């Protein structure tokens, strides 16, 4: 195994992009299915475009603001894909939530990131537990393994959000899972139009290879599924 890693035929750790050999050894069937999927996409040509009589819906995606307000362009749906804060306390999260509430977007979706400890009871600080801290989410939709279907401009958009990430830090990091667990197994509803996560879901192989999508999209991890 060490030689294969040295030859760059296998990845060094779970967070590196899988090599060709990694894909083949982990699941030959999935590898073949992915090749067929790419071939179908190539033959299909450009993606489907909605009829001109349907107004477009603009989705604005941000993440990793880490307690800092950022410039946010206008749009119909605003998605924050986690890491609102650095310390993960209820007070810090509430400060970011209050900032999101001031933005004009009609629908505002929020999921937690690994730094948003308060959302995960396993990583919540003892101070927040002792003080019975709570969050005010009025005007926002927080998703944790949940699907919502808001109506926008006469169209219904199914949005599913989940915060799970591979284990990558101390116990204060929220929603971590080990390689032996499968939090994504049968998790994403088939009717999902927009999938929001803080780390790429293993069940979606096209998000695992950074050669397929920009690194910024891998970090944001919002998949707009056709």
TrEMBL record:
It comes from the Eukaryota. InterPro entries: Calcineurin-like_PHP, Metallo-depent_PP-like, UPF0046_metallophosphoest. The chain crosses the membrane at residues 20-43. Keywords: Membrane, Transmembrane, Transmembrane helix. GO terms for molecular function: hydrolase activity. This is Calcineurin-like phosphoesterase domain-containing protein. It comes from Ophiocordyceps australis. It holds the Pfam family Metallophos. Residues 74-202 form the Calcineurin-like phosphoesterase domain. The keyword Membrane applies.
């Amino acid at each position: 195994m060490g030689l294969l890693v040295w030859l760059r035929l296998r990845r060094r750790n779970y967070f590196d992009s899988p090599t060709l050999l990694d894909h083949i050894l982990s699941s030959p069937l999935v590898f073949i299915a992915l090749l067929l999927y790419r071939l179908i996409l190539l033959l299909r040509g450009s993606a489907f475009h909605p009829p001109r009589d349907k107004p477009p819906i603009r989705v604005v995606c941000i993440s990793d603001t880490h307690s800092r307000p950022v410039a946010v362009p206008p749009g119909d749906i605003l998605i924050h894909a986690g890491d609102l804060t650095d310390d993960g306390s209820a007070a810090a999260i509430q400060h970011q939530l209050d900032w999101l509430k001031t933005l004009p977007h009609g629908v505002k979706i929020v999921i937690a990131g690994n730094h948003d400890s308060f959302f995960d009871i396993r990583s919540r600080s003892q101070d927040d537990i002792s003080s019975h801290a709570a969050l005010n989410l009025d005007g926002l939709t927080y998703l944790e393994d949940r699907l919502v279907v808001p109506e926008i401009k006469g169209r219904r958009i199914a949005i599913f959000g989940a915060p799970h990430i591979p284990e990558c830090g101390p116990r204060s990091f929220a929603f971590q899972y080990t390689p032996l667990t499968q939090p994504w197994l049968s998790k994403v509803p088939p009717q999902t139009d927009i999938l929001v996560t803080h780390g790429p879901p293993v069940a979606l192989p096209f998000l695992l290879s950074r050669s397929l999508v920009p690194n910024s999209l891998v970090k944001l991890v919002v998949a707009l599924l056709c």
